[in-house]
Automatic annotation (TrEMBL):
Upper taxonomic lineage: Bacteria, Pseudomonadati, Pseudomonadota, Alphaproteobacteria, Sphingomonadales
NCBIfam families xref list: pyrC_dimer
Positions bound to substrate: 16-18, 42, 137, 220, 252, 264
Span of domain Amidohydrolase-related: 12-336
General function of this protein: Catalyzes the reversible cyclization of carbamoyl aspartate to dihydroorotate.
Record's GO cellular component terms: cytosol
GO molecular function: dihydroorotase activity; zinc ion binding
Family: Belongs to the metallo-dependent hydrolases superfamily. DHOase family. Class II DHOase subfamily.
InterPro entries listed in its UniProt record: Amidohydro-rel, DHOdimr, Dihydroorotase_CS, Metal_Hydrolase
Cofactor dependence: Zn(2+)
Catalytic reactions of this protein: (S)-dihydroorotate + H2O = N-carbamoyl-L-aspartate + H(+)
The protein's name: Dihydroorotase
Amino acid sequence: MTETLTITRPDDWHVHLRDGEMLQAVARYTARQFTRAIVMPNLTPPVTTSAMAAAYRERILAALDEGQDFTPLMTCYLTDNADPDDMAHGFEAGIYTAAKLYPAGATTNSDSGVTDVANIKGALARMADIGMPLLVHGEVTDAEIDIFDREKVFIERILQPLIEELPHLRVVFEHITTENAVGFVKSAGPNVAATITAHHLHINRNAMFEGGIRPHAYCLPIAKREHHRQALRKAATSGSPKFFLGTDSAPHEVEAKESACGCAGIFSAPHALESYLKVFEEEDAIDKFEGFASFHGPDFYRLPRNSDTITLTRKPNQVVEGLAAAGTVVVPFHAGDTINWEFAA
Ligand SMILES: NC(=O)N[C@@H](CC(=O)O)C(=O)O
Ligand SMILES: [Zn+2]
Ligand SMILES: [Zn+2]
């Protein structure tokens, strides 16, 4: 049995670091485990210009602990009024690594998102030309589509036609949750990849209703049926370069989660690697972990792989019930549970 595992230091290809006091509290957890992270732009107001992204990057760097070596990779929040010139300038100047498509109303702080992909065709064509990746929150927002079907319908109505129209567009289908998404990504060209969260590998939709309503298991896209979770586990551990690590760690204050209208998001940053590794161990695929966590992401983004290493040790690791943040508490994924791996810097 593997007792310690040393791998190339991983990156997180999808994370919410927030801003202000929450940023001050949570940035350190991501910087502790990862060298780089794709930082989501869904702040209020959203990060829609390269100047805003450059300023946000500075705030992130200022929030790190002494001695932490971490590179935030910034993203542009696309709106109906996206400015292709500023976006392309930001990409070419190294301020932006990618741009993010939030269908308006699909998730947290997506109200300024895109109401119809037709409105951003100019920006998308420009991205295809310059090789700038498009990151997608892939859910339709139509109230008549069942919440558990929104990802599948997004593929049929939006993503498949988009890729047919712009076959060279580089696309990361973020936080996939269905076997439909796994199948779509596998059958698409090498310019289409996906991130998979730790929580969607661990929980199915029953977790939200286990003995009562469980707001800390609520995230978007919502967890699906067990056969979808099994398909995600198979994809993540398959060794395919199309699937890579993106935690979607999304902290909300405990009061905003434990509420009559609780926010979507699971805060997985503190023990992200341990959580993923547990899945790879259960799937008897520890040998595939380094590719998923450390190689497939930079290869897709055309960035160098990291050169330093990290070590995880097999030992009981008790996860705390809550962490202090922004004058209150955030509840981490696996709160109160014991995971059998521990990350050591
Ligand atoms: N995943 C979530 O449930 N929430 C994210 C938004 C997102 O990634 O869709 C957040 O910003 O809180
Ligand atoms: Zn999302
Ligand atoms: Zn997210």
